Amino acid sequence: MFEDKKVVVVMPAYNAAQMLRKTYDEVMAQNIVDVVIVVDDASSDGTAAVAAKLPNTILQVHPNNCGYGANQKTCYTLALQQGADIIIMVHPDYQYTPRLIPAMASMIGNGLYPCVLGSRILGGYALRGGMPLWRYIANRFLTFIENILTGAKLSEYHTGYRAFSRQLLEQLPLGANSDDFVFDNQMLAQILWYGHTIAEVSCPTKYFSGASSINLQRSIRYGFGCLWTALIFRLAKMNLVKSKLFPDVDG
User: Fold this and answer.
1) Of 132, 149, 156, 233, which one has the greatest count of Cβ atoms within 10 A?
2) Is 98 left (phi over 0), alpha (psi -120 to 50) or beta?
């Protein structure tokens, strides 16, 4: 608990058996997390078997691989069903340190922000943590264009370390989002669409052989999806298009 608020950590997992236990142990070491939810997206490496042995953990397994976005949809649905007040997504590959959970939870729990991101760009951690140069350049380029089109000033839109308030998740039309990786980007655009401020904290990260990543082809598809999302956001703001991603705020 954070004060009187229930804190739930969600882990969208796919072939995460190698680092799941290490990530979980550090999550629980923060002493404020009530429940961990692991959604296994039809892994082939025994991820579900590892998760099933973790205390205070709810495990759900997709019988077929549904995609990263679909995995998150399940995560957030289960978290809300568990009565979570503060929901924090932590990737189970230990790429992001769970030690920031108390800071992120406090920013949500004190009512300062409805969403907090762990940014790899703030503080210059990305390249020092091993982010490939091509990925860093793509991150900076996409973020620059997205900030122009959304009017925000985020350091990055592409981190997988995120905290949300219950009220925010209940407001967002997440069911309209992609089941693929661009779900992450659509979600942030929706938060901005509803007029919320997104906070960021500097987050060290590390890239290694056990850390999850998408290949170049899927990265390119993700990049175009991010640009398309930001463009539709701007056109919807100008009342030039209608989109199920960005419904009328008053209805």
Assistant:
1) 233
2) alpha
Beta strands (DSSP E) in the chain are: 7-13, 35-40, 57-61, 86-89, 115-119, 162-165, 198-202
Neighbours of 25 (CB within 10 A): 11
| pLDDT tens readout for residues 207-234 | 765 555 677 788 999 999 999 999 999 9
Tokens read off for 50:
């590892």
CATH for 7-237 (3.30.160.20, 3.90.550.10, 3.30.70.100, 2.120.10.30):
3.90.550.10
The alpha carbon of residue 19 and the mean position of all alpha carbons in its chain are separated, in whole angstroms, by 18
Q: At residue 49, what is the residue type? A: A
Residue 103 CB contacts under 8 Å (≥ 6 apart), including other chains: 201
Q: Within 10 Å of residue 42's Cβ, how many Cβ atoms?
A: 15
**Cβ–Cβ < 8 Å for 43, 17:** yes
Q: Which amino acid is at 80?
A: L
Residue 125 has a pLDDT of 74
- Residues in CB range of 112: below 8 A, 6 or more apart: 199
Domains of the chain, residue spans? 7-237
> Tens digits of per-residue pLDDT, 70-126?
999 999 999 999 999 999 999 999 999 999 999 999 999 999 999 999 999 998 878
